[in-house]
Design goal:
The protein has 162 residues and is an alpha+beta fold. The protein is built from 4 helices and 5 strands, in the order H-E-E-H-H-E-E-H-E. The chain has helices spanning 2-14, 67-76, 80-84, 119-136, and strands at residues 43-50, 53-60, 98-101, 106-110, 145-148.
Length: 162
């Protein structure tokens, strides 16, 4: 009888009512930066498109790169290795000056029109700019960037990666 009670108790405890769930996609795994001597990272994080979603790509530079350097690298497009891994860009290669105006709001100005950019292309620019500012140790009020171009200034936006 005692064995039956113990068996019944074990069965009741093991059937707690939690149902199994499938794997939930949460985007790419987080990346770690290798801090340089001054405590800041030596990697450049660019946001390209993988499987229709904006995703980070880390390039080692050995030094802290500024926002204009990061955005210039983004506009150059993915490297051949990144392309072979499936990364693409929704941005056309563009030349011309890129400037940063500290905020609030923080504004990044380009010499090309930004009104025509797709939401994914806009997000590539915003996410890359925010990542570069974070690598520099800069804080962006509200986590939003305003993009300005030769045509308009877009409303402030946050990074919508993943």
């Amino acid at each position: 009888m005692k064995k039956l009670l113990v068996l019944t108790a074990v069965l009741l405890v093991s059937a707690c009512g939690v149902k199994p769930t499938p794997v939930v996609a949460a985007g790419p795994a987080p990346t770690l930066r290798n801090p340089s001597a001054d405590g800041r990272g030596g990697d450049l994080t660019l946001y390209f498109v993988l499987d229709g979603r904006v995703a980070p790509v880390t390039r080692s530079t050995g030094t802290v790169s500024g926002v204009t350097t990061a955005l210039g690298a983004l506009l150059d497009g993915p490297s051949s290795a990144e392309s072979s891994d499936g990364y693409v860009t929704m941005l056309r290669p563009e030349a011309g000056p890129i400037s940063l105006v500290p905020g609030p709001p923080t504004v990044v100005n380009f010499s090309f029109p930004v009104k025509q950019l797709t939401p994914i292309a806009t997000n590539q620019l915003v996410c890359t700019a925010l990542a570069a500012l974070a690598a520099e140790g800069s804080y962006v009020d509200g986590g939003a960037i305003t993009l300005g171009g030769s045509d308009v200034q877009l409303p402030s936006q946050t990074c919508q990666a993943f």
